[in-house]
Specification:
Layout (H helix, E strand, L loop, with lengths): L19 E5 L3 H12 L5 E5 L7 E2 L2 H4 L8 E2 H4 L4 H4 L2 E3 L4 E7 L2 E6 L2 E5 L1 E4 L3 E3 L14 H13 L4 E5 L3 H12 L3 E6 L6 H4 L1 H5 L3 H5 L3 E4 L3 E5 L2 E4 L4 E3 L2 E4 L3 E3 L16 E3 L4 E2 L2 E6 L4 E5 L3 E3 L4 H6 L1 H9 L11 E6 L2 E7 L11 E4 L7 E6 L22 E10 L5 H8 L5 E4 H4 L15
Parallel strand pairs: 1-2, 1-9, 2-5, 9-21, 11-12, 11-17, 12-13, 19-22
Antiparallel strand pairs: 3-4, 6-7, 7-8, 10-18, 14-15, 15-16, 20-21, 22-23, 24-25, 25-28, 26-27, 27-28, 28-29
Helix pairs in contact: 1-11
């Protein structure tokens, strides 16, 4: 077994190409890592460790298509990634329990024994956050969770469903469940849905969607506990329910790494732009567990579906000493909720004194629209109101940190390309806020 390393200075010489790799996590990020290894010519031994006991599948459809897709979207069919054919040792029900890393290799402990390899890629995914006192609630994170929720909705057309959290998952499930005949109430502690993800001002513009979809939304409703008969709010009120779904976020599934690797408060690993874990030359991380350095957006926390899809390729390239692929992708989240499509590209700052000023493109409620999140440093003579002059630079040009597209799926590809060029996106805001002008035409020329 290799000797553990400390957070020492980085290596001065590149490591030799590994002859064996263990990939921990059999979700999208893990499957993409296995596929990238083979695609870039790796002929060594690959071991894949999973925890759910099923082949890799895509998680977003679990909520978006809860009732229309009774089976998981298997990655072998959806992306052509058959891990059984690509890896040498596939253990889908043998989760990792411990890790020792050294300068010459790693050892991963599992319930079946130890797996030694030259390198490890941590693609461990996440676990749903369940606050204390919420044990009586359900969650939606795995295919098994979806099966149980689907069965409950189909057994009772008038099911009283209370969803705690008006984030991505909560909103998606609320619309699906209401459409299936359930009586749905969404309880959100913040004053607006998706407040943490989009900011309170933009989130408030989505609140009307709930009533339009037949869902009751209560904001400013902090939940103290979940009981078998419903939910108890912080003020003592009891909200009755036949089923309570908690959807208040997720954290990296990294508890087994505590004391071994430098985890932050969320349980994430801070990695460089290639996915390397500093001080542990044989350890790499991708997907939900990796807070990854980005040349434009700074540190990008895990949890973006796009990270699990795209980051394994540059990580594998770096591990194998291959040429880098070029500019990294922009973070990307896509949601279908309450009869609307949302696409968030980039990384907005939504809370605190350095929150991104927002300007609007188009008018909410009158067709497709977008929110442009500006660099907080460019406040100009901001009046602080969404759609107003907030963040407009003196010359009318500003750096855009993120773009939220609402009900305009055809624009997603073009905006993704603009946001993923490897340099800050600078827009002439007079043009960018005019829906008649393509965003590409609003890109400002370099000074």
């Amino acid at each position: 077994m290799p000797e553990p390393t400390s957070d020492a200075a980085p290596l001065t010489a590149p490591l030799p190409v590994p002859r064996s790799v263990v990939v921990v996590g059999a979700g999208l990020a893990g499957a993409q890592t296995v596929a990238a290894l083979r695609a870039h010519g790796f002929e060594g031994r690959i071991t894949l460790l999973g925890a759910e006991g099923v082949p890799p599948y895509d998680r977003p459809p679990l909520s978006k298509e809860l009732l229309t897709r009774p089976e998981p979207v298997w990655l072998s069919a959806d992306l052509g990634v058959d891990v059984e054919a690509l890896a040498d040792d596939v253990r889908l029900a043998d989760p990792a329990r411990g890790l020792v890393s050294g300068p010459d290799g790693v050892v991963v402990a599992t319930g079946r024994g130890e797996v030694a390899a030259d390198a490890v890629v941590l693609a461990v995914g996440s676990v749903p956050l369940v606050p204390p006192g919420f044990a009586a609630s359900s969650v939606l994170h795995t295919a098994a969770d979806a099966d149980r929720l689907r069965a409950a909705l189909r057994q009772d057309d008038g099911l009283r469903l209370v969803i705690v959290g008006a984030g991505w998952i909560g909103a998606e499930v609320a619309g699906v469940a209401a459409g299936a005949g359930a009586h749905v109430t969404v309880l959100e502690a913040a004053e607006a849905p998706l407040s943490r993800q989009l900011g309170p001002d933009v989130g408030a513009r989505l609140a009307g969607w709930y009533a339009d979809a037949g869902v009751r939304l209560r904001t400013g409703a902090a939940v103290a506990a979940v009981e078998d008969t419903g939910v108890v709010l912080a003020g003592g009120e009891h909200v009755p329910a036949d089923l309570v779904l908690t959807a208040v976020g997720a954290r990296p599934a990294s508890g087994w790494l505590a004391g071994t690797l430098p985890l932050d408060a969320r349980g994430a690993l801070l990695v460089d732009g290639d996915g390397r874990v500093p001080g542990h030359p044989r350890v790499w991380a991708v997907g939900d567990v990796a807070s990854r350095a980005h040349p434009v957006f700074g540190t990008v926390p895990g949890g973006h579906w796009s990270a699990a899809l795209h980051d394994p390729d540059p990580t594998v390239r770096a591990m194998l000493g291959a040429e880098p692929a070029g500019a990294g992708h922009a973070p990307y989240v896509f949601s279908q909720q309450l009869g609307h499509d949302l696409a968030l590209l980039g990384l907005p700052a939504t809370t605190g004194p350095d929150a991104s000023p927002v300007v609007l493109r188009g008018t909410p409620g009158e067709g497709p629209w977008a929110a442009l999140y500006l660099d907080p440093a460019e406040r100009g003579t901001a009046d602080g109101t969404p759609g107003g002059a907030a963040g407009v630079a003196v010359d009318g040009v500003a750096t855009v940190r993120a773009v939220l597209l609402v009900d305009s799926p055809r624009d997603v590809g073009g905006v993704r390309r603009l946001m993923s060029r490897g340099e800050p996106l600078r827009l002439d805001l007079a043009k960018a806020t005019d829906p008649a002008v393509r965003l590409k035409a609003a890109v400002a020329e370099p000074a």
